[in-house]
Each structure stands twice: as C-alpha cells, then as structure tokens.
TrEMBL record:
Keyword Ribonucleoprotein (UniProt): no
Classification via InterPro entries: ACR1-12 (IPR040217), ACR2/9/10_N (IPR056816), ACT-like_dom_sf (IPR045865), ACT_ACR9/10_C (IPR056805), ACT_dom (IPR002912)
Role played: Binds amino acids.
Protein name per UniProt: ACT domain-containing protein ACR
Keywords: Repeat
Segments forming domain ACT: 131-212, 269-350
GO molecular function: amino acid binding
Entry keyword ATP-binding: no
Length: 437
C-alpha cells in the first residue's frame, strides 16, 4: 500500500461547496479509471469549477490535474501521477465517509522502490465474497433502504436475489464484499445487523452473513429479441434507434468528437464536447482504457450550460498517433455511444408481468459500474413502485459483457403498468437518476 501522504482530502466547510482530493503517487495502467470509479462508488461527482488541466502519463492512466489558467504545456515523466479533483456529493443527503474514502484511494495507489520502479507486487487482492441473508416484512421502498445502509457501510453489492412471498414477506440474498475488509469479524457483522435493524425494526425476522466461497457472477438469460433491443442501442445516422428513449432524450445535445493530428508531433488531439452527467470522466477513461488508448496530456474544461469540453492528447500503445481512419471511426463510435448512453434502461412484458431492465457494460477487468442498483431502487422508491423480485446477473452480447439488473414491478393505481405513458415515465425517471440529471 502507498504511504498515507499519497492522498490528501480537503473537505468543504459548508454544504454546496467543493471538496478537494489530491493524489500524489507513481503511475500505473488504468489508475485514472480506478480512482474515478472509487470516487463514484462513494457517491461523489467530479464537478466543474475553474479551468482544469489534466495530464495523463504516456503509460496510460496516471492523471495530473492542476488549476493553472496560464499554463501552455504540461507533461509527465511517464512514471508519476499528481492529481487534484474537485468533488461534490451526488445528493445533498449523502453521508460521505471521507476517512474511508482516503483509505480506499491509498489502497489503489501503487507503491515504488528506488529508482522509481513501480512495485509490481502492489496488485489489488480479491476480496472475500459474503452471502447476506435478510428475511423481513415487505414494504414500499424496502430494497432501497437496505441498499442505502449497505452503501453507507461500504459493503459492495455484486449479486442480488430478492423475492416476495404471497404473504408479503421479503427474502433478500445479497452477495457482498467489504470495502474495509472487516466483514469476517463479529464486530463488523454486528454493526451491519444494528444498522439494518434501525431501519427495519421489528419487521426484521432473521439476519445472517456467511462466506460465499466459490462465488461466481450469475448468468442473466434474456430472450433474444429483448437482448437485441437492450444491447443493440447504438447511434445510427446521429439518431437513437430505441423505442425506450423518450422524446426529450432525443433532443439532448449529442456528443461532438473531433480528431486533429496537426497540433502535436507525437499525439492525436481528441476534442470532446458533451452533456455533463454523473460519472462522465469515469466513462471516458474506462472506454479509452478498454480500447488500449494511452493519454499523454489532457484538459478538462469547466462546464457551460450543462456541458463539458475536454481536450485529450492520445496515443496508441506503441506511442504513435491515431491516423488510421478506421481506428478513428471505431474510437469515435465507441466514445460517442458510451457518453450518450452508458446505461441501458427499458421495460418489457414478461407474460402478464412487467419487468424493468437496467444494464451497463463491464470493464475488461471484470468490474461493473458503481451504484447502479442504488440509483435504480431509489428512482423506483420515489415513484412509489413496489418491487416484487430483483436480481443482478451478467450477460454476454457480441464481444462485450454486461451487468444486468432485473426488477419485477408491482402494479399500482398511481402508475398502472399497462399504460404506455406510465412505462415511459418509469424509464425516464430511472435513467435521469442514473445519469444525475
């Protein structure tokens, strides 16, 4: 693990002000993506402020962000990363555990030994997966309330199986890991039980945590037509081709991307202008990482009227520019698609029942997107919709793996699920919550 001074956090003194996270450590492939994922996992949004300059090392994902308005050129030595991020909670009601965040970020930072060789032994360990069994009386908003407690305890949800009995009892099975790596202790398990009991009260019938040895992500089997509609949501002729996209989504400004090979002898300039949204920087970095694109220098501009302007000087893994038109077109399509709809949301009929599907691409490292289950259940709770059953699984489509969240919804008088308008309203609300709009 890196030293304690590798990460410093200056917490905002008042609500609505920005907190500052400073990271100073050796570079490592995928570091920027991993850091942004963790910040998103803690319920924070990398926000706009003064003009920011982002420098990523030639070895891929080390990040340098400096608040210097007059700097004309920046570079790194390819082995060191210095990062400053201005962040704000995604929700005013969020309770951010800053000390835990610092410890998690430190655990991600690589160590080094003289003369500045990155310690290859500093690889992330696979956390023990646990099965948490929760049996309680069912009620509206139950699943989100449990999920919120788990997030606040830094218990990461990897798989869920939730069902409701005819007599309104809820059996919840959560496959989780502990960000603190303490769930094997009785004290940590007791803390979890106490926090859940505080919100469930006497409706909590039983609670148990067991090691889930041999855990594997479940496979989510979808009908071919449903899978095609869910995962085939691509940009065609500058328009969205999915019936599940509401008209106002189609009116949103599409991401503009441009490649320029005239400004640098060694790198291609990628200019991005897009709508601001939750996890934007994470989406860009994970896409470039998965496409084996290195970033030599970048500039993350302040937003104007809800948008972002980003300049990235990028290279191929061999250090050369991206001059091949086919490679440019592939990267253009992939980035544009990921920024416009990094999450897929739709409602389908499953016989007489109605099912909400939410999906996000899995990184090549096997990691999914943080807080998708949290945001999805929050949106349904705010809509007053009860969840009869829920599960999380993986689905392979074409050359990509997806994380699929499935919610079987209970019909209500306020939002009758037989109404097309109600279905569109649910999809729109869930998507907006996920995107932070």
């Amino acid at each position: 693990m890196a030293s304690d001074d590798a990460v410093a956090i200056q917490v905002a003194k008042r609500a609505g002000e920005l907190s500052v996270i400073t990271i100073n450590c050796p570079d490592q492939t995928g570091l920027g993506c991993d850091l942004c994922r963790t910040i998103l996992e803690f319920g924070l949004r990398i926000t706009r402020g003064d003009t920011l300059y982002i420098v990523l090392s030639p070895f891929d994902s080390g990040v340098l962000i400096i608040d210097f308005n007059d700097i004309l050129d920046l570079s790194t030595d390819g082995q060191w990363c210095y990062l400053v991020l201005w962040v704000i909670p995604c929700s005013a009601s969020s309770n951010i555990h800053w000390t835990s965040l610092k410890n998690r970020l430190i655990s991600i930072c690589p160590t080094w030994s003289f003369p500045f060789d990155i310690d290859s032994s500093n690889q992330p360990m696979h956390s023990q997966v646990y099965l948490m069994k929760l049996f309680s009386t069912d009620r509206k908003g139950l699943l989100h309330d449990v999920t919120r407690v788990l997030c606040e305890l830094e218990l990461l949800i990897h798989r869920v199986k939730v069902s409701t009995t005819p007599d309104c009892k809820a059996m919840n099975l959560f496959f989780i890991t502990d960000g603190m790596e303490l769930l094997h202790t009785q004290r940590r398990q007791d803390e979890t039980r106490e926090q859940l009991s505080a919100i469930l009260g006497e409706s909590l019938y039983s609670f148990e945590i067991l090691p889930a040895n041999g855990f594997q992500h479940g496979f989510s089997s979808l009908p071919p037509q449903v899978a095609e509609n869910l995962f085939g949501l691509e940009l065609v002729d500058n328009e969205l081709c999915s019936h599940s996209v509401t008209p106002d989504m189609k009116n949103l400004k599409k991401p503009d991307l441009n490649f320029d090979n005239t400004l640098s002898h060694t790198s291609t300039l990628l200019q991005i202008h897009c709508v601001d949204q939750k996890g934007l920087l994470y989406d860009i970095l994970r896409t470039l990482k998965d496409c084996n694109i290195q970033i030599a220098y970048g500039r993350f501009m302040s937003h104007t009227k809800g948008s972002r302007e980003i300049d990235l000087f990028i290279q191929q893994t061999d250090g050369k520019k991206i001059t091949d038109p086919e490679k440019q077109e592939f990267l253009f399509s992939r980035l544009r698609s990921e920024m416009l709809h990094p999450l897929r949301v739709m409602i389908v009929n499953r016989g007489p029942e109605t099912e909400l599907l939410v999906a996000n691409p899995v990184e090549l490292s096997g990691k999914g997107r943080p807080r998708v289950f949290y945001d999805s259940t929050l949106a349904l709770k705010l809509l007053g919709i009860c969840i009869f059953s829920a599960e999380i699984g993986r689905h392979s489509s074409s050359d990509r793996e997806w994380e699929v969240y499935r919610f079987l919804l209970v019909d209500s008088n306020d939002l009758p699920l037989s109404s097309r308008h109600a279905k569109n309203h649910i999809v729109d609300r869930v998507r907006r919550t996920l995107m932070g709009w």
